[in-house]
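Severity: low
Component: inverse-folding endpoint
Summary: output formatting inconsistent between runs
Steps to reproduce: submit the following C-alpha cells with default settings.
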C-alpha cells in the first residue's frame, strides 16, 4: 500500500516568537533553524523580513539545507500594486525559497478590520500570490480565521481559498486562529474545502486555546489536508500552536496514521526528539514540561507498585509506545506508593545490581518510605535517591564532610548610597582529614552557600569546575511559620542535569542539604577517587 506524504511546516521562529516570555536573538534563530533542519521538517518559517532588524538580518542568507526556508508576510495593501507595496516587496526580496502570506478569510474581518469590499480582498489574495510566483517563490496563503469565516459565510471563506489556489499557491492553509473549533467541525469543514482546493494543496494551522490543536491537526489530515503547521513544544501566542513534538511521534508510531501517511522525519531523528525538545527549552531558558506527551520526563513514569510490576512483565500494559523510540526512558518512581519492583528497576537503571532477596532492600525501601513521610520526594530527585541507595548498600564514599556552615544576611547602603541586601556564607568542610574554610558573597543566602561550598574542595575542585545550579524550587509542606520546607535543586555540568532534594523546617538547611547532595553526585558521576 502506497502511503501519502504529509508535510510538516514549522512556525516556531515566527508564530512561536509571539509566546509570552520568548524573545529570539539572531543567534537563537540560527541555532533553532539548524535544529529543525536536522529534525526533518519540510518547511521552516523564519519570521517576517522587514518587520524588525533581527528578522531582516536572518533573511540575509538561506538558513536551511534541507527544509524549505520560508518568509512570512501579509497580502498586499489595498490601493497599491504589488510592485509598489514595500511590505510585500520586502518579503519577496528575502533570501527564502517560499513565501507565506496571511490573508483574511472571514468576511467580518474584511469589512471591519481591512475596511474594504469582499471582492477587493479576493483581488489582493490573487495579486499577492501572482507576484510571489512570478518572483520564483513557492507561495503559501494562510487563510486567517478560516473556520470562523466558514461558519459565518461558507461561500466567501471558500472563495478566499479558491482565489489563492487558482492564482498559483502551492499550499492553502486553513487556520483555526482562535483555537475555538472542535475536531468534528474541523473534519467536516476540511472535507468541504477539499472540493475547492485539492487535499494535496491543503494545510491546517491549529491553535491550542481549547487544548485541541493536535487533535484538530490530525482530524484535518484524516479529512484530506496534507500539510500541518505547528511549533516545537507547542510554542505560540496565548495557549500556543499545535505541538510538533506530539504530532511527529503520533504520525510516525500510531498505526492508524503510520500505515496511511509518511513524513520527512526518519527513525533516527525521532529517537532524538526528547533531547531536541529539552535542548530547545534550555536555549530559551525555560523549564521543560515534565508531563509533555512522548518527550516529558514523566511521560513514561509510573509510581504505583502494582503498575510497576505489570510494566516489568509487559511494558505495553501502561506504555502506548516504546520510550526509546522518541529518545525517552521508562521511570519507575521511588516513593511511598512504590514497592520492591520499583526499587529494583531504579537500582538497575543507576547501575546497582542487587539480588532481589538482599535484606538491605527491605531496609532501603523502609527508609525511602519513612523519609517521604517526612517530606522528601525522590520521584523528582533521582540524584538524591542514587546517593541514598548507594550509601545504604555501602557503595558510595563520603568524598567530604561538612563540619559547619553559617549564613549572614545584611541590608546596608553601598558605596553609591544605594540600599542593598547582601548575603555572606561561610562553609567548613573536611577533605582527606584536612579542614577547608571558605567564604563567599551572593545575591541571596542560597546563592552565597552554593558559591562558598564549591569554592574550595581541595583535590576535588577540578571535578566540579563546570557545575552550576540551574533551577531552584521551594514547596511549603504545611502551613505556619514553623512549616516544613522541601527544596529541589536542579544542577547541570553542561552535559547532564540532575535534581537533589533537601527537607527541613529551616529553608536554609533544606537548601544546603540539596546543594551538598548535588556536589556529591557530581563527584560520583565524574568518577572521583574516594578519600
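Observed output (run 2 of 3):
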Amino acid at each position: 500500500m502506497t502511503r501519502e506524504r504529509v508535510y510538516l511546516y514549522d512556525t516556531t521562529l515566527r508564530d512561536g516568537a509571539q509566546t509570552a516570555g520568548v524573545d529570539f536573538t539572531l543567534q537563537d534563530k540560527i541555532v533553532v533553524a539548524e535544529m529543525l533542519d536536522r529534525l526533518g521538517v519540510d518547511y521552516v518559517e523564519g519570521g517576517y523580513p522587514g518587520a524588525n532588524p533581527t528578522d531582516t538580518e536572518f533573511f540575509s542568507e538561506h538558513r536551511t539545507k534541507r527544509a524549505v526556508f520560508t518568509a512570512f508576510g501579509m497580502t498586499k495593501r489595498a490601493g497599491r500594486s504589488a510592485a509598489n507595496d514595500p511590505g510585500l516587496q520586502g518579503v519577496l526580496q528575502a533570501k527564502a525559497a517560499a513565501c507565506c502570506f496571511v490573508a483574511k478569510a472571514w468576511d467580518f474581518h474584511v469589512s471591519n478590520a481591512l475596511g474594504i469590499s469582499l471582492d477587493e480582498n479576493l483581488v489582493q489574495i490573487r495579486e499577492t500570490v501572482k507576484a510571489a510566483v512570478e518572483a520564483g517563490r513557492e507561495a503559501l496563503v494562510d487563510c486567517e480565521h478560516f473556520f470562523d469565516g466558514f461558519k459565518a459565510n461558507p461561500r466567501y471563506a471558500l472563495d478566499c481559498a479558491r482565489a489563492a489556489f487558482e492564482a498559483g499557491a502551492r499550499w492553502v492553509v486553513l487556520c483555526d486562529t482562535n483555537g475555538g473549533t472542535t475536531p468534528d467541525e474541523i473534519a467536516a469543514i476540511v472535507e468541504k474545502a477539499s472540493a475547492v482546493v485539492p487535499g494535496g494543496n491543503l494545510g491546517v494551522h491549529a491553535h491550542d486555546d481549547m487544548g485541541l490543536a493536535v487533535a484538530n491537526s490530525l482530524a484535518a489530515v484524516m479529512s484530506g489536508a496534507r500539510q500541518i503547521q505547528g511549533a516545537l513544544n507547542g510554542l505560540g501566542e496565548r495557549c500556543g500552536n499545535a505541538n510538533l513534538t506530539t504530532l511527529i511521534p503520533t504520525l510516525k508510531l500510531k498505526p492508524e496514521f503510520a500505515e496511511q501517511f509518511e513524513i520527512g522525519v526518519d527513525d533516527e531523528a525521532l529517537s532524538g526528539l526528547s533531547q531536541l525538545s529539552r535542548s530547545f527549552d534550555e536555549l530559551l531558558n525555560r523549564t521543560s514540561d515534565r508531563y509533555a506527551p512522548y518527550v516529558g520526563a514523566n511521560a513514561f513514569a509510573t509510581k504505583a507498585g502494582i503498575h510497576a510490576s505489570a510494566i516489568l512483565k509487559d511494558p505495553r500494559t501502561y506504555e502506548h509506545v516504546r520510550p526509546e523510540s522518541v529518545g525517552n526512558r521508562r521511570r519507575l518512581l521511588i516513593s511511598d506508593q512504590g514497592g520492591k519492583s520499583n526499587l529494583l528497576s531504579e537500582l538497575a537503571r543507576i547501575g546497582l545490581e542487587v539480588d532481589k532477596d538482599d535484606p538491605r532492600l527491605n531496609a532501603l525501601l523502609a527508609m525511602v518510605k519513612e523519609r517521604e513521610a517526612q517530606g522528601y520526594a525522590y520521584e523528582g530527585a533521582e540524584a538524591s535517591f542514587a546517593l541514598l541507595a548507594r550509601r545504604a548498600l555501602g557503595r558510595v564514599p563520603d568524598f567530604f564532610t561538612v563540619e559547619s556552615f553559617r549564613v549572614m544576611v545584611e541590608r546596608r547602603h553601598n558605596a553609591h548610597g544605594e540600599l542593598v541586601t547582601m548575603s555572606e556564607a561561610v562553609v567548613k568542610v573536611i577533605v582527606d582529614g584536612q579542614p577547608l574554610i571558605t567564604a563567599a558573597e551572593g545575591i541571596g543566602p542560597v546563592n552565597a552557600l552554593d558559591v562558598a561550598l564549591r569554592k574550595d574542595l581541595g583535590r576535588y575542585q577540578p571535578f566540579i569546575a563546570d557545575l552550576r545550579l540551574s533551577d531552584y524550587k521551594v514547596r511549603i509542606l504545611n502551613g505556619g511559620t514553623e512549616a516544613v520546607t522541601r527544596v529541589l535543586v536542579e544542577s547541570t555540568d553542561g552535559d547532564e542535569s540532575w535534581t537533589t532534594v533537601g527537607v527541613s523546617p529551616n529553608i536554609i538547611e533544606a537548601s544546603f542539604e540539596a546543594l551538598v547532595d548535588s556536589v556529591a553526585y557530581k563527584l560520583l558521576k565524574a568518577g572521583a577517587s574516594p578519600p
